[in-house]
Amino acid sequence: MSMHYGQAQRVFVFSHPRTACHALFQLLATHPAFQVITPFDYCAFANEFSTEAQNPRSKEEWQDLLSLSDEDVSKITWQGSIDGLQREVADAELIGKWALTMEHPSYLIASSQLQAHLGIRGCEAKPTPVIIDRKLDVGAAYPHLDAGITPQAQYPNPTLLPDRFFFSFTPIITTRHPARVLPSVLRALQRLGDDISHPDFAVLGESFRLERLIFDSFKSYEEACAVAEDRKAKTPIVIDGDKLVRDPQGQMKKLCALIGLDESQLKYSWDPPRVLEHTKMARAYLNEFNRSTGIFSNPRAKEVNMTEEVRCWREEWDADIARILEEKVAAQMEDYEYLLRYTL
């Protein structure tokens, strides 16, 4: 999917947890065309710590998980976070780079939207932050980026990012079979010390509805632009984590062809990334990734067999948790299969 404001290239990975999204992002980040804009920083922190925090976890819990001081936290606002993101994008483009960033949609969406689409029990919707588009990404490199959005998308932008800024990105949405995602989220929550004995565990990791909302928003906007410009609409890019693990180079060749990059300039191995290495959150969610030295093809990665998966879950946990996981996987399949139709 290409942009409609001129030649600026900026890529946003809308990443579902446990979909090999960090491996995908690390692969893209090795390309010399990109300047990495701090992922999981601006919006995630605003979602958790600002005076308009939208997250169901308490501020104190998040502060502990991410090892942030009171002084760090006191400076975080939603407006400041969007401003910072825009500034970094402008800085990248001034030196001729493509801006590359990543965020889980659950950190980008107001709690009222989360409640409307996920129905999280016991979590009240919080007031939606008021964010002004200061257009700080509109620099000398791409002054036309402040052009108003004229095509009317059938599905609105579901995030807290200003519309103009949101639609200025080429989106890459990540997905993976729910039977792979959910037990992985559950193990991470266990490492965090969360109680996983009740049926509401793994709420934000259990639904692809948010990724579907973002996909539909970009798809309908692109279709409206295509009609206005009398051309064929392009489909937003969706990457499946299982396909990426089975054939990294094949998937990246297709992806690079779509966004206009030379795949041969990617590196498939790297020094261990050590993302936020010393925080509890990183140890729970990124322990394996932090030790990784690359992504290597695993063509024998098995297809999901639910009978076998449920048997393994019973052995790892117990019959009750296995039953809850099975129910949650079944509930997620419609959105997952919808996105799967569009994967590379």
How would you concisely characterize the structure shown here?
By secondary structure, this protein is an alpha/beta fold. It has 16 helices and five strands. It is globular, with a radius of gyration of 20 Å.
Blueprint of the fold:
Elements: E1 10-14, H1 21-29, E2 34-36, H2 42-49, H3 59-66, H4 70-74, H5 78-94, E3 98-103, H6 105-108, H7 111-118, H8 163-166, E4 170-175, H9 178-192, H10 209-229, E5 237-240, H11 241-246, H12 248-259, H13 280-285, H14 287-291, H15 306-316, H16 319-340
Parallel strand pairs: 1-3, 1-4, 2-3, 4-5
Helix pairs in contact: 2-5, 9-16, 10-16, 15-16
What is the chain-wise order of helices and strands?
EHEHHHHEHHHEHHEHHHHHH
Task: Report strand order across the widest sheet.
Answer: 2-3-1-4-5
Q: Could you tell me the CATH topology label.
A: Rossmann fold
Low-pLDDT stretches are 1-7
| End-to-end separation | 13 Å
* Overall body shape: globular
Q: Kindly report the average pLDDT value.
A: 79
**Overall SS class:** alpha/beta
CATH class: Alpha Beta
Total helices: the number is 16
Name the helicity range: 40-55%
Number of domains: 1
Commentary on this structure:
With 344 residues, this protein is an alpha/beta fold. It has one domain: Rossmann fold (3-Layer(aba) Sandwich), CATH 3.40.50. Helices cover 47% and strands 7% of the residues. It is built from 16 helices and 5 strands. It has a 5-stranded parallel beta sheet, with helices on both faces. Helix 2 runs antiparallel to helix 5, helix 9 crosses helix 16 and helix 10 packs parallel to helix 16. The longest helix is centred in the last third of the chain and has 22 residues. The two termini are 13 Å apart.
